[in-house]
Amino acid sequence: MKFEEPVTEIIKRAYNVKSFRFRRPEAFDFKAGQYITVTLEDNGKKTGKPFTLSSSPTEKEHIEFTKKLTGHEYSNLLDAMEVGDPAHISGPFGKMTFEGEYEKIALLSGGIGITPMISICKYATDLKLSTDIMLMCSDRTEQDMIFVEELEAMKKENPKLTVFNTLTKASDNWAGCRGRICESMVMEELPDYAERVFYVCGPPPMVDSMLEMLHKMKIPDSMIHKESLIGY
Ligand SMILES: Cc1cc2nc3c(=O)[nH]c(=O)nc-3n(C[C@H](O)[C@H](O)[C@H](O)COP(=O)(O)OP(=O)(O)OC[C@H]3O[C@@H](n4cnc5c(N)ncnc54)[C@H](O)[C@@H]3O)c2cc1C
Q1: Over the stretch 70-113, which tens digit does the pLDDT of each residue have?
Q2: Which end of the chain is more exposed for a tag (fewer CB within 10 A), N or C?
Q3: Which of 46, 72, 112 is the pocket-test mutation for ligand 1 (most atoms within 8 Å of CB)?
């Protein structure tokens, strides 16, 4: 489906991350984990980029995507957008989806790769699904962590949701886990890892290293869904 909609809300998530919301057309149907293409026009030049939806299919009024601002051309166009400015949207696309079909899942995210995981967590929470969810997020610093309050609110509503954060460049004050997601971390936090279906999303090097780790842990490809955020 293709449609044009004005931005209805812009939410600053971190110093370099913004979410953009649009009215959700009635006919726009998608699954948690999927992505859209957002095309912007500047002086007659059109550029489109893919973004996973950070809103859930259960949210009927709006759709939302979340962009890490890079200072590059397209990113600057988005950063300068104001409520009311139009965007061309097409989608949904993508095979990394969740529809409540698994009993236990593990979501491994790197940086902005948390966006489809938020959609999945919100979907499961809103529908009160019995799926046991472990979300493992890897970020650089405390300032790079996004959707922290939203996840706290979801955890209060959903006893089956656990969130684990690890930081690669944490400040001295950080009392949580340090370093990238690794085999020993997964084994410690998820003793039942062999029973879980894994979802992996992040920049390509992060996704590649997670796949290598999961293969080493003898997780079959049939138990792994992934989306590489090509472009980082
Ligand atoms: C399926 C999918 C889903 C995605 N979902 C998301 C999402 O939810 N959120 C999100 O933020 N991104 C997402 N992405 C990535 C997104 O589409 C963009 O590619 C990304 O945001 C970078 O776009 P940009 O215009 O900011 O940077 P670009 O200009 O495309 O730059 C990207 C990289 O190219 C290099 N580069 C480009 N120009 C220069 C330059 N002049 N000098 C030096 N280096 C340069 C840099 O290494 C830079 O990091 C997704 C990608 C895919 C494939």
Answers
A1: 999 999 999 999 999 999 999 999 999 999 999 999 999 999 99
A2: N
A3: 72
The torsion defined by the Cα of 131, 136, 142 and 143, in degrees rounded to 10, comes to -70
How far, in Å, is the centroid of ligand 1 from the Cα of 232? 5
Rounded-to-integer distance, Cα 138 and Cα 101, Å: 25
The model's pLDDT over 45-57, given as tens digits with 9 standing for 90+, comes to 999 999 999 999 9
Q: Are 70 and 64 in contact (CB under 8 A)?
A: no
Q: Whose CA is nearest to atom 9 of ligand 1?
A: 67
β-pair partners for 38: 49, 89
How far does the centroid of ligand 1 lie from the alpha carbon of residue 117, in Å?
A: 19
Closest CA to 121 of 159, 76, 66, 91: 159
Domains along the chain with CATH numbers:
2-93 (2.40.30.10), 104-228 (3.40.50.80)
Nearest atom, ligand 1, residue 49 CA? 17
Q: Which pLDDT does position 231 carry in this prediction?
A: 87
The structure's pTM equals 0.96
